TrEMBL record:
Coiled-coil annotated residue ranges, if any: 28-55
InterPro entries: TPR-like_helical_dom_sf, TPR_rpt
Keyword Coiled coil: yes
Region (Disordered): 338-362
Pfam families: TPR_12
Keyword Disulfide bond: no
Signal peptide: none
Assigned keywords, A-Z: Coiled coil, TPR repeat
Protein's name according to its UniProt entry: Tetratricopeptide repeat protein
TPR repeats: 165-198
Amino acid sequence: MYGKAFAPEYQGELGSALSVNSSYEEVLETANLALADADSALARARAQLAVAEANRRLGRVDAAGSAWRASYRSARDTGDPAAMAWALWSGGTLARQCGTLPLARRLLGHAVTLAADSGDRLAHGYALAGLAETGRIQGDYAAVAELHEQLLEQGRAHGEARHMVWAMSGIAQMHRNTGDYEKALELFEESARIATEADDARGRAWSLRGIADVLSVRGEPDRALALLSEAETICRTMDLASALAYNHKMRGNVLYRAGRYADARDTYALALREFTEMHEPRGEALSRLGLAKSRAHLGRDRAGTLAELDVLESEFGRIGLQHAREMVIAFRAELTATPVPGTPAPRSGATTLRTPAVPARS
């Protein structure tokens, strides 16, 4: 059994003023008011953490970076290891969002240690989940598969729906990326059901995106697009800028797989603008790959596409996304195998490799 979803990153007075479904503009306004009224270092740390998370979700990465560091300094001043752990969790999550995966792992690793020492089970769980998600994004399934399962069991044991949704959707993503679409769909649908019953709108939006992805791979684009439209409404209501951009990138994937290359091109271009505005290089690079593949199908010269693929392969290597680098290699092989020079690229039926990963949520 599980209860209603809650957001433990909103602490102290903020915990009673905000919910897991509060829009991030509301979170930011409330947190700034709390920061102005803070009368202790711990109160400042908590308010600054909420400021950091709101700005991160809104795609304002510079403001988020300043806020989590301020939260950590305030927590250190008061000598509270749990508050320090929460700040490092926020910083590690931001680093992952910005594509700095080695830094994300370092910060999240420190967060795990501090949280364990403090006895704050939720901070410890969030930090472990952050490490698991970072490893999964990199395609390091052997290192994180068991950790996802442990997190799911913890969520079940303590009745924490948000943790269950988080872990379950991560496990589903790994099944999807290794070709077990039936299991992936089952887990994504269960994740969406739990999120709905627990009133976790954000979790439902990410779960719907996962369902749409699997349905698209299975050749059901109309159902996939309808689910993405529902998820987009949630993202807009909650001001989930990063999730909205990934929703649009997934819409591009669905359109591409359906052979609607012009629509896919335009949708990838939209996602690219959104990622660029929020300085999220991982999303930018993935959108650029989709855009390059769509343009290749629409008749772009092969030399231009190959040159862009070379740049993208280097960028994915720099970020540390081995799975995405393999997508580039696979499409280059398709492109160069085209028998007649100047003809459109062969249809692969997908914008991503089925093995290994596509990017996870932020």
